[in-house]
């Protein structure tokens, strides 16, 4: 016989395992909060913008093909900006105690679609250092690109600055706690239903009927001794409904 679960059964399971669900959810929120506020190191981000212009010699032949060429040139600039040719000089200038690969991982170079503006973003545990690295990368690239590609078409639009109210981009405690709340609730509910599924205890007459595939014709109640006499609480063989005895008889 296939077992069917009603909506009432689902809510009954949730009510029965409510303490377990709440405990798991609270633990998940506490772990997330403690980790976000006390264990994870704040990371700050600082950005600068560069403008890639046409060189004066190219202005006379500017057309649709040249637009595409400029966009491809920006992609090339993005790669060069994170190359050892630039980053080695940045490390030397700022006297950074890190490898080129480590510095590369802190830098993100991006440009909007069909835009000649390039944004250089740097993440670091120190907001002041993040701004210094971003500005140094931009200025170093502006100087070195002249020798690397024999062009002088890069200008700095905006330098990275550190505000007094600088806030870290990560971790985001409230977001982490909200995620932990949802995940903890899902895990708690999942475990509750799993425990209920694995629980083979027979609790009702309906469970017996479901397992044996046979109807219940009577119920034997509890027998209690009262003043030396045995009193039996049993259901009559006749029933008004499934599993519902209509009376008791004394023995």
Secondary-structure blueprint:
Blueprint: H1 7-16, H2 18-39, E1 44-52, H3 64-81, H4 84-94, H5 100-106, E2 107-111, E3 117-124, H6 127-149, E4 154-158, H7 173-198, H8 205-212, E5 223-226, E6 229-232, E7 239-241, E8 244-245
Antiparallel strand pairs: 1-3, 1-4, 2-3, 5-6, 7-8
How would you describe this protein?
This protein is of the alpha+beta class and 251 residues long. It has 3 domains: 7-39 and 171-198, no CATH class; 44-158, EIF_2_alpha (Alpha-Beta Plaits), CATH 3.30.70.1130; 205-245, no CATH class. It is built from 8 helices and 8 strands, in the order H-H-E-H-H-H-E-E-H-E-H-H-E-E-E-E. It has helices at 7-16, 18-39, 64-81, 84-94, 100-106, 127-149, 173-198, 205-212; strands at 44-52, 107-111, 117-124, 154-158, 223-226, 229-232, 239-241, 244-245. A 4-stranded antiparallel β-sheet has the order 2-3-1-4. The longest helix has 26 residues, at 173-198. The relative contact order is 0.15.
